[in-house]
Write a structure and sequence with these properties.
By secondary structure, the protein is of the alpha+beta class. 54% of the residues lie in helices and 17% in strands.
Length: 194
């Protein structure tokens, strides 16, 4: 199948990823846009993993204040260079994540921030709920309940409020792929009157 410029443009508009990467993904997917999207998501994760050990030395602060002035959030989005930190799209990403933090009030940035004591307390609560389940299934059910419970509280695992098909973590991974640098959410702060 012939890869047209309209197909490439459509994929680029969906992902924000470079024209060449979109073209390569469409070629690999033999023109199937849905497959190309999956290929780009897979490459996004691979790119993020390769760059995750690079040092963060720059960044941008994203700020969002709701129109009622009752909720506000700040996000420190880190990257490697000032060149990327000044990029309009990078600054916009920091603001989008700040808006999400204001709306969803995550307690943690990533799963690694949850300590064992908090996990044990959650297990105590869920033990009663799974007590009547078969013994061989209890551990798997407990894992599912814990994962679901904490997913709602972890920023990088939350679906983005403006596009629930994408998590905040996928947005950050997409930025790694787009800018070619390590990008990470370094800090979040949320203030609320209520």
């Amino acid at each position: 199948m012939e890869i047209t410029s309209a197909m490439i443009k459509s994929l680029r508009d969906q992902t924000g990823i470079s024209v060449m990467q979109c073209k390569k993904a469409l070629e690999e997917a033999e023109g199937d846009a849905d497959k190309a999207l999956i290929i780009l998501k897979k490459k996004r994760s691979e790119a993020a993993d390769k760059k995750s050990d690079r040092e963060i030395g720059a960044g941008s602060i994203g700020v969002y204040v709701h129109n009622t002035n009752e909720v506000a959030a700040m996000v420190k989005l880190g990257c490697e260079t000032d060149f990327v930190s000044k990029n309009e799209e990078f600054v916009a990403l920091a603001k989008e994540i700040a808006m999400h933090v204001a709306a969803q009030a995550p307690k943690y940035i990533s799963r690694s921030e949850i300590n064992d004591e908090i996990i044990e307390k959650a297990k105590e609560v869920f033990k009663a709920e799974i007590a009547d389940k078969p013994a061989e299934m209890q551990e798997k059910i407990m894992e599912g309940k814990l994962s679901s419970y904490f997913k709602e509280q972890i920023l990088l695992e939350q679906p983005f409020i403006k596009n629930p098909d994408v998590t905040i973590g996928e947005m950050v991974s997409g930025a790694v792929q787009k800018f070619g640098e390590n990008v990470s959410v370094a800090e979040i702060t949320r203030l609320s009157i209520k």
